[in-house]
Amino acid sequence: MRVPVTLITGANGEIGHGLIEHLRKNGTAVVALDLKPIDESLRPYCHAHIAGDILDDFLMGRLVSEYEINAIYHLAALLSTRAEYTPETAHSVNVEGTLKLIKLAVEQARWHGHRVKFLFPSSIAAYGLPDVETKNKVGRVRETDWNFPTTMYGCNKLYCEHLGRYYTLHYRQLAAEQTTSGVDFRAIRFPGLISAVTMPTGGTSDYAPEMIHAAAQGKPYACFVAPEARIPFMAMPDGVKALVTLAAAPEERLTQRVYNVGAFSPTAAEIRERVLRAFPHADITFKPDKPRARIIDSWPADVDDTAARRDWGWQPDYDFARAFDEYLVPTISRYYAERK
Ligand code: AKB
Prior knowledge:
Strand content: 15-25%
Oligomer: single chain
Number of strands: 13
Order of helices and strands: EHEEHEHHEHEHEEHEEHEHEHEHH
Bound molecules: 2-amino-3-ketobutyric acid
């Protein structure tokens, strides 16, 4: 008998940590997969943990033969800054990797006869505003607007959203016998996520978490965007909440396959101010890096998450003040104090 499990790729990443901790609380058997060996702290919560590459067909075959996979949280990706240095590698990991996982879901659904939920963290990087004037003018963007990403990562995310929609709704539409793929794809366009316990690597929204973590460690930080740069952010517990709430939503309530979720949308200067309130001696300056700042300028100032609120009751627990006062500052302070 194969063991029924939920597969999480990119499990060592910042969403993976919070998600695995959440899933173990409701007794879900998790198979955690990451390029690097799974963090010691996560291992006790996993049914199995595997160090391996999502592009490895042999590994994919092994997963099919050993487990009955009922849900996949496909978190593995090369983020927006890193992807600009190696766009073709980013395409392989972000697009070909996702297609392999979707195919794995199709195969699993065939074996066990029920649909496989496929949760996909997309991103505000799927948007592309042409300039700051337009960005300021349009304000909160809807899912269907401004889908002209300027980064490889954004293009990859947008295309994978379409792949997921295709496999869920239109798979093999010309086949003589109507078939369904068995994949139930659901995606969230995340804003910049800020975790108190992990540092993101390779993203462009990283300036917010980097500012906070540097201040908590007493290190100076030069922010790579201008003080007035603005994009939406979210505290990690809300990121995890969004994914598991969308996963649990009755399918008939979903009017779309890709949803914006919003929480708060401060400028870089407002983030600095808030960090200084908590860590008054923090040394935070602004030293904009034009190309990276341009990427931030192409992302929306905020998102319209009406559809998520209406279809599956999305509601963030943390606004800007609460994210700092009740999650980031206490958790980060404790985290670094324990490591002194
Ligand atoms: C990145 O900066 O690449 C990510 C994202 C916004 O998707 N954090």
